[in-house]
């Protein structure tokens, strides 16, 4: 056994003083045994490094997988998938239809969306136009006390300020009905008509699945 | 490793006013620390916890104006001692099969090469398991990039002892692994 071989590993690790390292380098160039040993030790060191890298990658991967399969995550993912499927298959529309009232529902709260006729533009003479725009006399006695007062005024947007967007108010179902009367996630959108003096004229509630309805321009 | 290099001989008192160097130190040492701890047999979670504990300890030590010449070996020593608290798993996983993840780090381009690589790692795992505790610790710290002097500081043994232990361990592995 070569006397230099005892220092080969320290030499490969760069732990020898400079002069000793230079001597050993010169020796390795001419000694087959030491050169072979140095190659083997070098390969072992590389294998250990690769093994440690592999261990780090492997443990990190297992950690990720174990976290992924935690029961809570699985349950959450399943619930999200079920809700997505429900929404994609139009389930929210069916649920909305289920909770929509019959046409003869209580007139106090009209749950059915109003049918608003599309505006039409008609040609008229100047005299007719003046007559149409003239303020009309209102029989207040008949409106306040007559049988007509019991009737609900036809749904129209006469009281909206011109050019103003309607005001929508989202109300949780729990605030209007006893707990359990509606499934969780159902809310209502209130459509309020105001008179010119600011008092409320009409309130219309529309059921909605909270979080699943595209609100458009509503707040 | 990042491009920034932290000088080894930085005193802890300097870290108080050089907070950016703590960040550099963390970037520099995090992976070698994790590598060392995982090689010792800790799980990834345990290793992350130990690394975090080590840097929290460093922060406290710096705040108390403690004095230490070699930050790197100091952090490794703290991590080493914290890792001992996980004795239940300390060496249990050391010879755990890593075959399934071999393709991630292997350079093998053909199935035959991959099989040979797997066999090489199996032999190494068995050989590592046959080493003594101090030999495994020395090799793991060496694989993490520490010098013999730093390994000695971490393990609390003279540098010459580290050199002998590393030499003995490598020769054992070379004889058993046949790489």
Key attributes of the depicted protein:
heterodimer; A: 219 residues; alpha+beta; 2 domains; 3-stranded antiparallel sheet; 7 helices; 11% strand; disordered C terminus; B: 179 residues; mainly alpha; Butyryl-CoA Dehydrogenase, subunit A, domain 3
Please report the first level of CATH classification, the CATH class of chain B: Mainly Alpha
CATH-scheme architecture of chain B: Up-down Bundle
- What is the domain total for the residues of chain A? 2
Q: Helix-strand pattern of chain A, N to C?
A: HHHHHHHEEE
- Widest beta sheet: strand line-up of chain A: 1-2-3
**What integer value in Å does the Rg of chain A equal?**
42 Å
Q: What is the assembly state of the chains in this entry?
A: heterodimer
Mean pLDDT of chain A: 65
Strand segment tally of chain A: 3
Helix/strand-derived class of chain B? mainly alpha
What low-confidence regions of chain B span 5 or more consecutive residues with pLDDT below 50? 1-9
Which word captures the global form of chain B?
globular
Strand pairing plus helix content of chain A: what structural class? Answer: alpha+beta
Count of distinct structural domains of chain B: 1
Write the layout of secondary structure elements.
The complex is a heterodimer of chains A (219) and B (179).
Chain A (H helix, E strand, L loop, with lengths): L7 H5 L5 H13 L1 H37 L2 H18 L2 H9 L26 H8 L6 H6 L22 E5 L13 E9 L5 E10 L10
Antiparallel strand pairs in A: 1-2, 2-3
Helix pairs in contact in A: 2-3
Chain B lengths: L11 H6 L1 H22 L3 H20 L7 H13 L3 H4 L11 H4 L5 H20 L2 H11 L4 H8 L3 H19 L2
Helix pairs in contact in B: 2-3, 2-4, 2-8, 3-4, 4-9, 7-10, 8-10, 9-10
């Amino acid at each position: 056994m070569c006397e230099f071989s005892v220092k080969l590993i320290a030499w490969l690790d760069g732990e020898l003083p400079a002069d000793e390292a230079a001597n050993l380098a010169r020796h390795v160039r001419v000694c087959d045994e030491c050169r072979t040993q140095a190659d083997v030790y070098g390969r072992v060191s590389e294998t250990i490094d690769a093994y440690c890298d592999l261990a780090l990658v492997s443990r990190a991967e297992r950690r990720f997988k174990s976290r992924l399969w935690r029961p809570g995550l699985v349950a959450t993912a399943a619930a999200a998938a079920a809700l997505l499927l429900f929404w994609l298959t139009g389930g929210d529309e069916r649920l909305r239809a289920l909770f929509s009232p019959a046409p003869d529902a209580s007139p106090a709260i009209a749950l059915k969306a109003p049918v608003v006729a599309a505006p039409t533009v008609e040609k008229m003479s100047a005299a007719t136009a003046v007559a149409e725009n003239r303020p009309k006399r209102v029989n207040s006695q008949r409106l306040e006390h007559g049988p007509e007062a019991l009737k609900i005024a036809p749904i129209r947007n006469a009281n909206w300020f011109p050019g103003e967007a309607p005001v929508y108010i989202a109300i949780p179902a729990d605030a209007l009905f006893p707990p359990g009367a509606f499934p969780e996630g159902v809310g209502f959108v209130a459509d309020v008509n105001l008179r010119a003096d600011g008092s409320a004229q009409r309130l219309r509630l529309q059921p909605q699945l909270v979080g699943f309805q595209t609100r458009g321009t509503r707040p | 490793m990042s491009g920034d290099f932290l000088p080894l001989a930085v005193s802890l008192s300097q870290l108080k006013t050089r907070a950016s160097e703590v960040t550099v130190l963390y970037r520099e040492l995090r992976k070698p620390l994790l590598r060392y701890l995982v090689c010792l047999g800790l799980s990834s979670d345990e290793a992350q916890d130990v690394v975090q504990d080590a840097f929290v300890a460093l922060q406290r030590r710096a705040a108390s104006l403690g004095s230490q010449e070699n930050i790197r070996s100091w952090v490794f020593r703290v991590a080493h001692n914290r890792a001992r608290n996980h004795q239940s798993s300390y060496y249990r996983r050391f010879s755990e099969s890593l075959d399934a993840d071999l393709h991630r780090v292997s350079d093998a381009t053909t199935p035959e090469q991959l099989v040979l690589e797997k066999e090489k790692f199996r032999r190494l795992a068995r050989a590592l398991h046959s080493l003594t505790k101090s030999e495994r610790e020395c090799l793991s710290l060496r694989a993490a990039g520490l010098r013999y002097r730093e390994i000695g500081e971490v393990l609390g043994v003279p540098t010459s002892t580290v050199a002998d232990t590393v030499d003995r361990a490598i020769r054992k592995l070379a004889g058993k692994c046949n790489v």
